[in-house]
Amino acid sequence: xxxxxxxxxxxxxxxxxxxxxxxxxxxxxxxxxxxxxxxxxxxxxxxxxxxxxxxxxxxxxxxxxxxxxxxxxxxxxxxxxxxxxxxxxxxxxxxxxxxxxxxxxxxxxxxxxxxxxxxxxxxxxxxxxxxxxxxxxxxxxxxxxxxxxxxxxxxxxxxxxxxxxxxxxxxxxxxxxxxxxxxxxxxxxxxxxxxxxxxxxxxxxxxxxxxxxxxxxxxxxxxxxxxxxxxxxxxxxxxxxxxxxxxxxxxxxxxxxxxxxxxxxxxxxxxxxxxxxxxxxxxxx
Length: 285
Fold this sequence. Notes:
Blueprint: H1 5-36, E1 46-52, E2 61-62, E3 68-69, H2 71-82, E4 85-91, H3 97-102, E5 108-109, H4 117-120, E6 124-125, E7 130-132, E8 134-139, E9 156-160, H5 164-172, E10 177-181, H6 184-192, E11 198-202, H7 203-212, E12 217-220, E13 228-230, E14 233-234, H8 239-255, H9 257-265, H10 267-276
Parallel strand pairs: 1-4, 1-5, 9-10, 9-11
Antiparallel strand pairs: 2-3, 5-14, 6-14, 7-13, 8-11, 8-12
């Protein structure tokens, strides 16, 4: 049967439309392939390897059985559950935390790590999840009443190697002798035994160690620097994980997650900070 010219023309137009839609769809898929290939799919759980130094209770520590425990452990485990990860925590020495990201031994680091320009050149940081300030643990016979008292010849200060206390002392206390040690307990021992005049670290650590050594130490809480912000570090360019972490940090600030973690791990410390007028770790107002 012979079709009219009008019918043939209509058929041709319809065919071209179908082909055009297919071509557009193919082009759209090709254009999106570069973006989509880095997006995480949630059909299967992925392993999230987290590096932290389990030597800073109650944030990063071990329970009686030797398993990872603490506020940071609870937080990153809750994050992993929310974003469909199986979390593996690797206890890592402080000076090996950033290298663990660079060598792909870990996916992220949460270890009460302050965001600094120097570190940000090596890793990408999440939005801040906590805020802290430095303080001084001083020997009772040192005569140290402020940070300025330390910046003179004949005075010595212990710092944990690579910590922000180390960075501060190096930049701001050129006249003092800086004693760099591997961990905070060694720094405290130096102060208690009178081998150094002071130890510079965060307020919570100084507060706790002064309580443990009331006869031989004193604490200096007079602010001498801007508050520090702690962030979660990821490997440079890992934008997917970084976006997830930032999203979860924001949610946790809003839904009371940090309040619940405080109640579980730091109730007495929170009361003391309030009494002393210290800014709390999770106070971003």
